[in-house]
Specification:
2 copies of one chain form a homodimer. Chain A contains 11 helices and 15 strands. Chain A has 335 residues and is of the alpha/beta class. Chain A has a 7-stranded parallel β-sheet with strand order 3-2-1-4-5-6-15, with helices on both faces. The interface between A and B is large, with 59 and 60 residues. Strand 14 of chain A pairs antiparallel with strand 14 of chain B, so a sheet runs across the interface.
Chain lengths: 335, 335
């Protein structure tokens, strides 16, 4: 039985807790502790926060104490998108001897700026005999691992195009705000200028695909534009007027020989229809893979995190990316 | 650079050779030898058989001599669907210190009858520090690994349905004969009674999916029926009259609690339209994955075999199934 601590119970972490609790009856996994910084949550039984019955698992504000008390096999970590924010948290878990599965988008394929930290993290993993993995549904699956897997039968690959269209109106409120739904185009431009706006992880997905295929691009680039509403759109969380920002339209491209060889296109906006995930491989054989209706991200992120448990438990110690580990699969899910 | 011997140059093996030769310019792989039993092929430069220029690689009729001379890193093996036919060939390669990637369908998930052989093979692998993998497009990908991968974002799986519809009229001649195209229903029944007719590997795919998900079915069963032509169908290789057999319709089911939890359905017949691969996961989130036009099997089998090279090279020694190794991906294919 795998003993798990959930680190961070924002919308994703709280759903991880719900899923872990639902799987406890299989005897394969047990939620032993929860860490969060929110004073409104600390000290409360997580069952209250989930509006279910009492669970006996109380939210701790002291990560070190929680890790020392429960000595979890695995920490599922979901606190921030950025390595510089989560670095100490990850090291804390590793030093406590726990594997870590983190939703930190930048961690799915750290860029050169993080080389020093990643080397330190990798060494700490090896010293403690544990694995740290950055994953989730995007980055981690929909626009990278799935695309890589789509090439498994190909003898030749000329190009790969990945498209993910998400009707954000069906997603959680924070996500709708995160993509700028309801902003004016000028407000969108201001947010974009901060460099910490839009979907975090598209360049990581691009690098995951390129690296998995042993492809060294001559050039990689990313663009971010607002998706503009062509009519008024209302969701449970926001009203977007015609001409206002409905969400994001983000494209990342890896080129060689002047040609786009890998192209990832993400449309995430309220009112997008239909939602779809698509991977088109030009090559031999050609592959036209579609997930009709798309992969529903809120649940899928939770699934991707929880389903990584067996993979981190059986991998060699060190820092890993999703493309370094076996095929992902549902864990304790078909019973 | 990975040095490869191709063992068996029927239609699939010959295409493996063609693909390996095409990848030699990447410097990642080199075809160093070929083994076959056909007196018409032995002693000839494989370039003659491919109708390309001279390659310098001559077909050998003596596997031991070929392996001893070239000491390949990897043998790609495609001679028969059945473990009892290929057992000695596999051990021969392993004893020569080579990894083996085999298209032997039964090997993708050996059943209980082969326990003794598999234990011996696994021990030989470990003694020699090599890996033996049974793979291909089906079994090995389309109806198993792809289905497993489809569950990676799922927090709950209620059932999995896999459908593969193949217009065999577009496939190679031996495959059209293998599925009985042109037979009368009575001839089909006779062939079926031999127990070595139809698609070999559907039960293996069923076990791969169940095992990967940690699911222990209460019951597993398989049916094989003829697909009957509703009109006359002509291909380059066969003419099928109305009412004659166009191919196979094969279904494998794993049940628990009286319900089909995993269902694999294969239609492989001349005149099937459209070709498609589909994986439907009922669960949370639900997944409706389609490969429009299907995965073209003749090329894809070759791709699956060649693309397994990096995976067997980096795995721990032993006998492996596709679900034991990292995500498949195109090898030396995007350059």
């Amino acid at each position: 039985m795998v003993r798990v601590v959930q680190y961070g119970i924002g919308p994703i972490g709280l759903e991880v807790v719900r899923v872990l609790l639902s799987k406890q009856s299989t005897g394969e996994v047990k939620l032993v502790g929860i860490v969060d910084v929110d004073p409104q949550k600390i000290g409360r039984d997580v069952g209250e926060l989930l509006s279910t019955g009492t669970t006996g698992v109380v939210v701790s504000g002291d990560a070190d104490a929680c890790l020392a008390e429960h000595r979890p096999d695995v920490v599922i970590h979901s606190t921030s998108s950025f390595i510089d924010v989560v670095g100490d948290q990850l090291l804390q878990c590793v030093d406590a001897g726990s594997h870590v599965i983190s939703s930190t988008e930048e961690l799915s394929f750290p860029d050169g700026q993080s080389d020093g930290f990643v080397a330190r993290l990798d060494k700490a993993c090896k010293d403690n005999g544990v694995v740290v993995l950055g994953t989730g549904v995007n980055p981690g699956y929909a626009m990278d691992a799935l695309a890589v897997m789509a090439t498994a039968p190909c003898t030749r690959v000329d190009s790969i195009q990945v498209e993910r269209a998400v009707d954000a109106g069906r997603r959680r409120g924070p996500l709708q705000r995160k993509i700028g739904a309801g902003l004016t185009p000028a407000q969108f431009a201001e947010k974009k200028a901060t460099g910490r706006f839009g979907h975090i992880g598209l360049m990581q997905s691009l690098r995951l695909v390129a690296d998995a295929l042993g492809f060294e691009p001559e050039q990689m680039s990313e663009t971010l534009e607002p998706a503009i509403a062509d009519r008024q759109i209302r969701t449970d969380f926001v009203t977007v007027d015609e001409g206002a920002v409905a969400g994001i339209h983000q494209v990342a491209v890896a080129k060689a020989g002047g040609r786009a060889r890998i192209r990832l296109e993400l449309k995430m906006a309220v009112g997008v229809s239909p939602s779809i995930d698509r991977v088109v491989v030009e090559g031999d054989p050609p592959i036209d893979l579609r997930i009709e209706g798309g992969i529903f991200g809120d649940t899928a992120t939770v699934g991707a995190l929880v389903n990584a448990i067996p993979n981190v438990m059986s991998a060699e110690p060190g820092f890993k990316r999703v493309i370094d580990l076996p095929v992902g699969r549902a864990f304790a899910a078909l019973r």
